[in-house]
Design brief:
The chain is an alpha+beta fold. The chain folds into two domains: about 80 residues, no CATH class; about 90 residues, Sandwich (Immunoglobulin-like). About 15% of the residues lie in helices and about 30% in strands. The chain has a four-stranded antiparallel sheet with strand order 6-14-10-11, with no helix packed on it. Strand 2 and strand 3 form a beta hairpin. It is elongated. The relative contact order is 0.13.
Length: about 200
């Protein structure tokens, strides 16, 4: 019986829909006790006793699930909350025709910077070269930006290096062109050296 445990005997007040279509060619299909003719559609949210919770439960392991996998019905319109964290069930719902309500839309961030983590510096490690760069076209922020003090962090073989003691930074194109260069001053990297950087770029 639809609605058992919920008993939401009240017509819907918002334009929330869960409309299914009878996709068989030879029979009526009954959903939540309502007959849907061949080629017909019906909004299950129009049934006063049926709630979103009933529909979610039925899609997981109830009548709707059975009729969808039996190729008797297909969802043609839905905007109810079906947020999914299970990729398998999400794929099932998408195959059933549901495109809305499966995930939360996150608006684009208006933060004007992005983090770069565990980036290997570029340059020959030959026991002679001391000049390295971040991968092109990155330019890292070195100083105050958007009320934050950002600085590149360099690790050599897992050991944190100290700015102005182990390395200095510079702008290869000249002042105002953006920081992209690191000069190692306390040692000379060799072929066993791993130079890893964390830094922030403007977006």
């Amino acid at each position: 019986m639809p609605g058992v445990g919920f008993e939401t005997w009240w017509p819907k007040q918002c334009p929330t829909v869960f409309r299914v279509a009878n996709i068989t060619t030879d029979k009526e299909v009954r959903v939540f006790g309502v007959k849907i003719p061949i080629g017909g559609t019906y909004d299950c949210m129009d049934i006063p006793v049926v709630s979103e919770a009933d529909i979610r439960h039925s899609l997981l392991k109830g009548e709707l699930y059975i009729k969808i996998i039996g190729n008797e019905i297909r969802v043609v319109e839905s905007n109810i909350d079906l947020l999914q964290f299970d990729d398998c069930h999400k794929a099932f719902l998408q195959q059933a025709g549901i495109t809305e309500g499966l995930e939360v839309d996150v608006p684009p961030s208006d933060v004007p910077y992005a983090f770069r983590d565990n980036v290997e510096l570029v340059g020959p490690k030959n026991s002679a070269n001391r000049i390295f760069k971040v991968p092109f076209p990155d330019k890292f922020i070195q100083g105050m930006f958007d009320e934050n003090d950002f600085r590149i962090i360099i690790d050599h073989n897992g050991r944190r290096l100290v700015e102005n003691c182990d390395y200095i930074v510079s702008e290869s194109g000249g002042p105002g062109t953006g920081y992209d260069t690191i000069e190692i001053i306390s040692f000379v990297p060799n072929k066993r050296s791993q130079l890893i950087a964390d830094y922030v770029i403007e977006t």
